[in-house]
Structures are given as C-alpha cells and as structure tokens.
C-alpha cells in the first residue's frame, strides 16, 4: 500500500536488462525496474527463484553478466571490486537474516563501524551512532555486548548499523525470518520508518505475508524473471 504523503524525488535505483547465470544456468533473465527514494519494494518468490542473487547484484557483491544497475548516477556493474566496495560502504546499507553484528564489538561500536570506515572522526561517529540508537528507541542497549542481546535486539541493532551512515539504498534479505511475530513487526516498523524519513530506497527479499502487505510494491520472481505480482 502506498504512502502518498512521502516526498517523491525521482528514481534512486534503476535496473536495466539485468542478466546473471551460474554454472551455465540462467538465474536472472532480463530484469528491469526502478525504486524511488523512500519507496519500499518487496521481492517475493519461491526459494531458488533468484531473490538473494538479485540482492547480491544490487549490493555490488557480485557482478551481472549483462545489464545496468544505476545508483546515485553510477552504474555499479561497470566498477571494479575496489570501487564497488567503496560505493557499498558509502551508499548501501545491508541487513541480513542473522544480523551479522561483529561479536567482538559492543552495540555502540557496531554502529560506529560503518561511520569510521567512511572516515568519520571518532567523536562524531560516537555521537551519530548514539543518536541513531536514540532515534530507534535502543538507547538502553548502547553499552551492551552483542552476546547479551536477544535475537530481536540484535536485528534491531543491525538495522541501525545499516542506516547510520544514511545510505541511498537499503537491502534486506529475509530480515524477519528468524523472529517471532512481535519482534518481526518491530523490525519492520523500525526499518520502514527510518527509510521513509531519510529517503532511502528499501528493497527486501521475503517470504513473509506481513512484509508483503506493508510494501509499496511487490516484485515477483519466477524462474529468474519478473512476473505480475
């Protein structure tokens, strides 16, 4: 369902004629779509339909065999590995099923990490990380060790880490799959609200009905191709 009150500022992500195969098998075939700033798009389809492959391509983790992925005016597909890594660090936030927090760092330092990798000074990274925790209602967790957090708390912190450097694109791979219903709704609330407020494009791979019902738009993959959702 659309939130027509959000500001529309053009297309934040454009995908044109995207192809990807593995081992001689076509995984994604001629995908084209756009995602606007603040828009929440859910990618749905059976296991093996290509959802995770698509997210990896959008993140610049893998390169397509053909096609264009344009983010902030840059075609990710044309960049070498170092340039893709730099673009991902600056412009993309990633949320995984397991959270993927760094276990040797505390909560606050996990949020500071992407900021410091982008050259933000220590005092400023601390301020911005704490402000993100405050904005997401997680201020009480700032001094905790990651190992002391529940699964739901870890996922909420992971969302904060994905958003703290204010990326243009947030990619989430089944972020609610391992959570109970209450924690899943809380994670969706945090992620969707923060992306809308900051104008980040949100693309989420999911099987969850509650996610599909909240997305602005569904992209359904079948045998590596987009079909009407």
Automatic annotation (TrEMBL):
SMART domains, alphabetically? AAA (SM00382)
Where does the ABC transporter domain lie? 13-229
Q: Which GO terms describe its molecular function?
A: ATP binding
* Source organism superkingdom: Bacteria
Print the keywords alphabetically. Answer: ATP-binding, Nucleotide-binding, Transport
Q: Which PROSITE patterns match?
A: ABC_TRANSPORTER_1 (PS00211), ABC_TRANSPORTER_2 (PS50893)
**This protein's name:** ABC transporter ATP-binding protein
Q: Where does this protein come from, organism-wise?
A: Pseudomarimonas salicorniae
């Amino acid at each position: 369902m659309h939130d027509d009150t959000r500001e529309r500022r053009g297309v934040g992500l454009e995908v044109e004629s995207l192809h990807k195969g593995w081992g001689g098998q076509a995984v994604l075939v001629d995908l084209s779509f756009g995602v606007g700033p603040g828009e929440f798009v859910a990618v749905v389809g059976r296991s093996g339909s290509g959802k995770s492959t698509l997210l990896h391509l959008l993140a610049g983790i893998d390169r397509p065999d053909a096609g264009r992925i344009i983010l902030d005016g840059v075609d990710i597909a044309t960049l070498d590995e170092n340039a893709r890594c730099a673009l991902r660090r600056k412009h993309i936030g990633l949320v995984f099923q397991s959270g993927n927090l760094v276990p040797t760092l505390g909560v606050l330092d996990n949020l500071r990490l992407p900021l410091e990798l982008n050259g933000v000074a220590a005092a400023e990274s601390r301020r911005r990380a704490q402000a993100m925790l405050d904005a997401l209602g997680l201020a009480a967790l700032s001094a905790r060790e990651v190992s002391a957090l529940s699964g739901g708390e870890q996922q909420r912190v992971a969302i904060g880490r994905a958003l703290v450097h204010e990326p243009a694109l947030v990619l989430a791979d089944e972020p609610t799959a391992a959570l109970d219903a209450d924690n899943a709704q809380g994670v969706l609330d945090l992620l969707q609200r923060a992306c809308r407020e900051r104008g980040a494009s949100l693309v989420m791979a999911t099987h969850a009905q509650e996610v599909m019902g909240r997305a602005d738009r569904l992209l359904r993959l079948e045998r590596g191709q987009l079909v009407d959702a």
